Amino acid sequence: MTPQDRGAAVAAETARFVAAVRDADLTLPVPDCPDWTLADLVRHAGSVQRWFTVLIRQRIQERPLSRDVDLRLPERPEGLPDWLAEAAAQAAAAFAEGDLDEPMWAWGADQHARFWVRRMLFETLVHRVDAERALGLAAEIDPELAADGVDEFLTNLPFAAFFAPGTAELRGEDRTIRFARTDGEGDWLVRLRSDGFGLDQGDGTEDDTAADATVRATAAELLLLLYRRLDRTAAGVELAGDQELLALWFEHSAF
């Protein structure tokens, strides 16, 4: 997917999010985000979009020292859906203002403005799913978009230790975990080393390299599994190989 494709997907995912919550009771709890209500979820999603938009517009070259942003929160919770829609409109304008391939600081692997578009997309998508599930709605995910989300998660997780300290425990003596998609092409091999872990870059298709443990599921199931929205014992998820290694992964890979 191109940065422009992902920018369009941010708009589409936000529109679906807004449609789900516009007439909903925003005091309802969100099971996938313990202690949050729908209002909290919308407020979080819109705040993240506004924060990322500021970063993109500034093309910052160093890690920011402050996250202060004028959120312009509505006075009443009923205004939150429109406020979220406005955040997406501001993001779209920022995406169109310059070259998203320009270099800038990012906490992950890709040190370009496009990193933040991709990150915003999956932050929005996962929380859209949270909202729909909380409301008992069908929470479908486009399979190719889900595969891109799996890749984004696994590519950037090794860089997340400063806000996800548990990832520092993901170490091993050259141990590997394969995440294999069952509904199309998509295969990701994660290697745990004594000094950390990372994604082995391949061609996206499952090869003959033996892995110590394997997780097979559809792209959407893999995405929800990585984000702790799906339990690894769920129907449709196939686990094979070293169960202790898989337990280590799922215990310490919270994003």
Q: What does the model show?
A:
This protein has 255 residues and is α+β, with helices and mostly antiparallel strands. The chain has two domains: 3-140, Up-down Bundle (Four Helix Bundle (Hemerythrin (Met), subunit A)); 147-252, 2-Layer Sandwich (Nonspecific Lipid-transfer Protein, Chain A). The chain contains seven helices and five strands. Strands 3-2-1-4-5 form a five-stranded mixed β-sheet. A hairpin with a 2-residue loop joins strand 2 and strand 3 (196-200). The longest helix is centred in the middle third of the chain and has 22 residues, at 113-134. The mean pLDDT is 95.
Helical element count?
7
CATH fold-level topology of the largest domain: Four Helix Bundle (Hemerythrin (Met), subunit A)
The number of distinct β-strands equals 5
Average pLDDT: 95
Strand order of the largest sheet: 3-2-1-4-5
Strand content: 5-15%
Under the CATH scheme, the architecture of the largest domain is Up-down Bundle
Summarize the topology.
Layout: H1 3-21, H2 38-58, H3 80-97, H4 113-134, H5 143-156, E1 175-181, E2 187-193, E3 196-200, E4 213-217, H6 219-226, E5 238-241, H7 243-252
